Amino acid sequence: MAAVNLPPPIPAAATPPRVAHYENFPVASLLCPARLRAPIRALYAFARTADDLADEGDASAGQRLADLQAFRADLHAIAAGGAPSPRWAALFAALQVQMQAHRLPQQLLDDLLDAFVQDVEMTQGGATYADHAALLGYCSRSANPVGRLLLHLYGVHDAPSLRESDAICSALQLINFWQDLSVDIPRGRHYVTDADCTAHGVSRAQLQALQPSAPTTALLAALSAHARALMLQGAPLARRLPGRIGWELRLVVQGGLRILDRIDALQGGNLCQRPTLGARDWLVMLTRAVRM
Length: 292
Hints:
Protein name: Squalene synthase HpnC
Organism: Comamonas faecalis
InterPro entries: HSQ_synthase_HpnC (IPR017827), Isoprenoid_synthase_dom_sf (IPR008949), Squ/phyt_synthse (IPR002060), Trans_IPPS_bact-type (IPR044843)
Number of domains: 1
Oligomer: single chain
Strand content: under 5%
């Protein structure tokens, strides 16, 4: 599953440049309160393992779906107070402790698994998303649960904060899509929607050629602008939340925006190359986070 990777710890879904493991989830860091490091690690292990089942190795689509079903069965077992299967016993034992200690919402974990299943099914058939609503529906399962789980751990539950978190997480997911086009398209993962292609007169064949042209450049600029608007829609949350969580989120927002700066600078070249961040970019991100 695609996601963007930012300074630790990072929600979103997780975040610039991609790391070796599940990028949608933060890994406990110095910014994270010590009391939250264990639940974050348990959630990371859950998401990482499920992501590997959906994406790694050479298993067939049928086997991947069967493995994800078995993984979900273990989640439901521990949520009901039971024991998991031996296959992932240590992982689910740790998660069960944290679910009970922090009352983690099971539905958000189920939503993540739904997104992994959707990834397998969409990739298998080379399916495409019809429009932004369909793509954001995927983001609501693949990315938004991460932000909501983190807010839950920090005791933030009000509706405006949840909406802004969703906007940030969905924006991060979209940013990752647009920075990874050169990787995802050859793998049969099509996140540019049918409606966007039609609006800019771009065919699937043109995208699959991975060769920028005037129409594809205009299309990718529009996609970047949409992701930026979504990020800015959620940004007030980072300014409003106090303490460590506020600083974490400011870095997340600024990291996503900086990747969009790099995408825009390529002028459509993100179709054939992946933008990356250098040392100067991290300084820019930190400076902008302080200014927030």
